[in-house]
Design a protein that fits this description.
This protein is α/β, with parallel strands linked by helices and about 425 residues long. The chain folds into three domains: about 5-210, Aldolase class I (TIM Barrel); about 225-310, Phosphoribosyl-AMP cyclohydrolase (Ubiquitin-like (UB roll)), CATH 3.10.20; about 335-425, MazG-like (Helix Hairpins, Orthogonal Bundle). The protein is about 40% helix and about 20% strand. It starts with a strand and ends with a helix.
Length: about 425
C-alpha cells in the first residue's frame, strides 16, 4: 500500500505566488521560495506548481523561478501549465521537477502525450482533466502513457474506476472531513488544492489523524521504543543537533518522552528545558525553528543525533552554532572536500568584490567570460593529457587547476557549490 500524498499547490505569476488563475492577488507575501520551504518543512509530500505566464518571455522567467523553488523545497515538484511543446516538458524536468502535467483540454497536449511519455518515462508524465468529456475519448491513451491523473473532485466522481492510473485530487473545498473521506478512496494517490495549501494547516498533525483512521501516510515513526532508551538520572536523553546540509554541530539539548513524541508528531524539534522545567519547541519565540530530518540512536542507546534544517541561528546569542568559544586548538589540515571547495570559492568571490592588485583571479575577471572559458577548456585538455601518463601526481595537479578555473566560472555566472551539490543529489 502506497502512502497517500499531501501536495500543496502554488500559482506562479511573474515570479510571485498568487491566489489563482482569476484575480491573481498575492498569496500571503508572494515569496515562492519561502512558501515552498515552509510547505516542505511543514510535512508536505510534494508541491504542485501552476505556471500562469502569458508570454514566452514570462515562461522562460518562470522556469528560472521553478529552478529556485526545486532547490528551496527539498520535496518532489510537479509542474503544470504552459506546456505547448515537447521542449517545455524537457525544460520543466531539467529545472528539477519530478513530473510534468499535460492539460487534456489542449489537442496539442493529447498529441504529444505518447512522445513525451516514451522519451522521459511514464512516471514523469501526468495529465489534468477538468471535464469528463476530456477524459473519455483518451482513456486508453491515458492508461498507457500517463503515470498520474490530476482531477477535480466532481470529475473524479465520474471517472472513478475507469482506469487504474492513480489520481491526485484537486480539492476546491476547505474541508478537513472531505479530505479524510477522499484519502480513503483506493484510487486516490493524494490530495492537493485549497485544504492542504492554506499555509496555516499543521500537515504533520493532520497526517497523524489520517494514520489513526487507518490511512497510510508518510509520518515520522521511531524504530526504537522510548522504553529501550537509556536515560540519565532525570529521565532525559541528550540530543546532539547537527545541520543536515553542512554537518555542523549546532547545539546540545535534552528530551523527555513527551518532547520526543512531540517531535515525531510535528516534525519540529522539541526539547525539555532543565532550567524552566517545561517543554519547549525550538524557535517558538525566536522563529528559528529546527525541522527534523532524521534522528539516530548511538550504540549505547543513551544519546540521540538529530539532523535538522535550521532556520536562522541555533544559539540564543545569535551565533549560528552554540559551539563558538574556542578553548584550545592545534593546527590541522581540514580536507573535508566540500569545506575546501567552499573556502576557495569564497576567496574567489571576495576577489571579485574586492579586487587585489596582481591577483590572477582578478586578471581572469577583468578579461571576462571568453578568457575564463578559454582557460577552462585548456585545463580540461590538460587533464586528458595527464591521464595518459602513469604518474597520478600530474593528474591531481591538473584536476586541481581545472576545478579552480571552474570555480572562477561559477563565480562569474553566480552559481554556488550548494546549487551544484543539490543538482548532483537530485540525479
Amino acid at each position: 500500500m502506497h502512502d497517500k500524498w499531501m501536495i500543496p499547490c502554488l500559482y506562479l505569476d511573474q515570479g510571485r505566488a498568487v491566489t489563482g488563475r482569476g484575480q491573481k492577488e498575492l498569496f500571503q507575501d508572494g515569496d515562492v521560495k519561502r512558501l515552498s520551504a515552509a510547505y516542505s518543512d511543514g510535512g508536505a509530500d510534494g508541491l504542485l506548481l501552476f505556471d500562469l505566464s502569458g508570454t514566452d518571455l514570462e515562461h522562460e522567467a518562470a522556469i528560472g523561478t521553478i529552478k529556485e523553488i526545486c532547490q528551496a523545497a527539498q520535496i518532489p515538484v510537479t509542474a503544470a501549465g504552459n506546456v505547448k511543446r515537447v521542449e517545455d516538458v524537457k525544460k520543466f524536468l531539467y529545472a528539477g521537477c519530478q513530473r510534468v502535467v499535460l492539460n487534456l483540454a489542449k489537442d496539442s497536449n493529447v498529441g504529444m502525450l505518447k512522445e513525451v511519455s516514451e522519451r522521459f518515462g511514464k512516471e514523469k508524465i501526468g495529465v489534468s482533466v477538468s471535464d469528463v468529456k476530456e477524459f473519455e475519448p483518451h482513456q486508453q491513451l491515458v492508461g498507457q502513457y500517463a503515470g498520474l491523473v490530476l482531477a477535480a473532485e466532481n470529475v473524479y466522481e465520474k471517472i472513478r474506476g475507469a482506469s487504474d492510473v492513480p489520481v491526485l485530487l484537486y480539492m476546491e473545498r476547505d474541508s478537513r472531513q472531505g479530505a479524510l473521506e477522499l484519502l480513503q478512496e483506493e484510487q486516490v494517490r493524494g490530495i492537493s488544492g485549497v485544504y492542504v495549501s492554506r499555509g496555516d494547516l499543521p500537515l504533520m498533525e493532520f497526517k497523524m489523524e489520517c494514520k489513526e483512521r487507518g490511512i497510510a501516510v508518510n509520518t515520522f515513526e521511531s524504530a526504537v521504543a522510548w522504553s529501550d532508551f537509556k536515560l540519565n538520572g532525570d529521565g532525559l536523553i541528550p540530543v546532539v543537533v547537527q545541520d543536515c546540509q553542512t554537518d555542523e554541530v549546532l547545539m546540545l539539548a535534552y528530551m523527555n518522552e513527551e518532547a520526543y513524541q512531540t517531535t515525531l508528531r510535528t516534525g519540529r524539534m522539541t526539547y525539555w528545558s532543565r532550567s524552566r522545567q517545561e517543554l519547549w519547541t525550538k524557535g517558538l519565540t525566536s522563529g528559528h525553528f529546527q525541522y527534523m530530518r532524521s534522528m539516530t540512536l548511538d550504540c549505547d542507546n543513551d544519546t540521540i543525533l538529530a539532523k535538522v534544517a535550521q532556520v536562522g541561528a541555533a544559539c540564543h546569542t545569535g551565533n549560528r552554532t552554540c559551539f563558538f568559544q574556542e578553548l584550545v586548538c592545534k593546527g590541522y589540515d581540514d580536507t573535508n572536500p566540500l569545506r575546501v571547495f567552499q573556502d576557495v570559492y569564497q576567496v574567489i568571490l571576495d576577489r571579485k568584490v574586492h579586487p587585489k592588485e596582481g591577483s590572477y583571479t582578478n586578471y581572469l575577471f577583468d578579461k571576462g567570460i571568453d578568457k575564463i572559458l578559454k582557460k577552462v577548456g585548456e585545463e580540461c585538455t590538460e587533464i586528458v593529457i595527464a591521464a595518459k601518463n602513469p604518474d597520478k601526481e600530474e593528474i591531481k595537479y591538473e584536476i586541481a587547476d581545472f576545478l579552480y578555473h571552474v570555480m572562477v566560472l561559477m563565480a562569474e555566472k553566480d552559481v554556488s557549490w550548494e546549487e551544484i551539490t543539490q543538482e548532483l543529489a537530485r540525479r
